[in-house]
Amino acid sequence: MPDTAPTAAAPIGRRERKKAATRQAIADAALRLFLERGYDDVGIREIADAADVSTTTLFKHFPVKEALVFDEDGDKKARLLAAVRERPEDQSIPAALREHVLTYRIAAAGGDPRFTAFFDLVNATPALRDYEQNMWLRHTAALAQVIAEESGLPDDDPTCTALAHFALEAPRAARGRDDPRQAITRAFDLLEHGWHTLASDE
Cα(65)–Cα(56) distance, rounded to whole angstroms? Predict the structure, then answer.
C-alpha cells in the first residue's frame, strides 16, 4: 500500500538495507501487476520474475500472497494506540478512534490516484478485504489494554474489549458506500452515544 505517513528511520546496516530494498522491489512488482491485471490473475512466480528474485526469496518476505499488497503493520499499530494515548484531554476515546480511522482509512485516499487504485483493488477482491480486516482485528487486545489504562479500568474489563473490537470493525461499514466518511462517523456515533440515543433521533 502507498505510504500514508512518513516516519523517522533509524540508521540501518548494509545487509538490512539490501533486504529492505528487495522487499520493496517485490511489493512494487506485485502491486503493479495486480493493478494491471487483477489480483486473482497474477501468480507468485510472475511476481518473483518481475522483481528478479526466486519464489523462495519472495516467500521469505511475504509468507502469503495477500501480504504482498499490504505494508507491515507495526507502524499502523503504533499510530492506533497513540491515537488513544495522545488524544486531547477533552476528547473521548471513541472520538479519538473515529478521527484516527477517518485520517488513515478514508482521508488518505482522497485526491491521490494511487490510493484510489489501491482501495479499488482491495474492495474488489474478497481475499484482500478479509486479510486487511484481519490485520486490523489482531490489534484488538493491545487496543483494549490501552483503553483500559486510559479509562482507569481493569485490563480484562469486557467493555474495553468490546469497544476495541467494534472500533476496529467500524471501517467495514464504509465499504460500498457513496459517502464512506458519513458511514464511519455514524458507526462511531453508536460507540460514543449508544443505540438508544441514535434510535431516538429517527
Answer: 13
Q: How far is CA 177 from CA 46, 53, 130, 164, 172, in A?
A: 34, 39, 18, 23, 10
Q: What three-state secondary structure class fits 99?
A: helix
Cell numbers placing 124: 474488489
pLDDT digits (tens, 9 = 90+) for 10-23: 566 888 889 989 99
How far, in Å, CA of 143 to CA of 96, rounded?
12
CA-to-CA separations, 162 to 99, 135, 144, 157, 158, in angstroms, rounded:
19, 17, 8, 9, 6
User: What top-level class would CATH report for the domain 14-68?
Assistant: mainly alpha
Whole-structure pTM value:
0.72
What is the spatial distance between Cα 65 and Cα 81, in angstroms, rounded to a whole number? 27
Q: Which CATH class is domain 74-200?
A: mainly alpha
Bigger pLDDT: 130 vs 144 = 144
Distance of CA 71 to the CA centre of its chain: 9
The beta strand positions in 90-188, using DSSP E, are: none
Report the distance separating Cα 128 and Cα 42, nearest Å. Answer: 14
**CATH 1.10.10.60 boundaries in the chain:** 14-68
Q: Where are the CATH 1.10.357.10 domain residues in the chain? A: 74-200
